[in-house]
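Q: Given only this backbone (139 positions), what sequence would you predict?
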């Protein structure tokens, strides 16, 4: 399922989420997380990981994200600069509280699958620790 999302994402769903005020933040983080994967593959480090190159990393991540959006068929779409800056400021660190929360959600979904009780989430779960919001994107 994840492989399908990466190899053949729903362009119309991505464009719809980027344009929708309620989902644009979650979709922005989704695009940025995928852009960070590309950034890491290209530069062998996470954006903002090392002190001293923050401005360069912000510029590189923005370019990578715009390239990803173009590859996804979302030409002309832009991401807010504050999301890009926050992703670089974060520098691949993990906040224990956020990691514990997301780990709890993941373990709950595994229990649903193993016990075959209840309906597991379908889609990509995005948790925004800044605004304390979570959203499920079906791509």
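A: Predicted residues:
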């Amino acid at each position: 399922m994840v492989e399908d999302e990466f190899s053949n994402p729903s362009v119309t769903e991505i464009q719809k989420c980027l344009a929708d005020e309620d989902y644009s933040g979650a979709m922005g983080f989704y695009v940025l997380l995928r852009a960070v994967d590309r950034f890491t593959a290209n530069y062998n480090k996470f954006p903002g990981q090392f002190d001293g190159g923050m401005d360069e990393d912000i510029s590189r991540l923005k370019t990578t994200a715009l390239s990803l959006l173009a590859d996804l068929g979302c030409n002309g779409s832009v991401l807010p600069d504050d999301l890009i800056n926050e992703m670089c400021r974060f520098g691949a660190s993990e906040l224990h509280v956020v990691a514990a929360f997301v780990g709890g959600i993941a373990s709950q979904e595994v229990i649903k699958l193993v016990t075959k009780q209840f309906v597991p989430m379908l889609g990509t779960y995005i948790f925004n620790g800044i605004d304390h919001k979570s959203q499920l994107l079906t791509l």
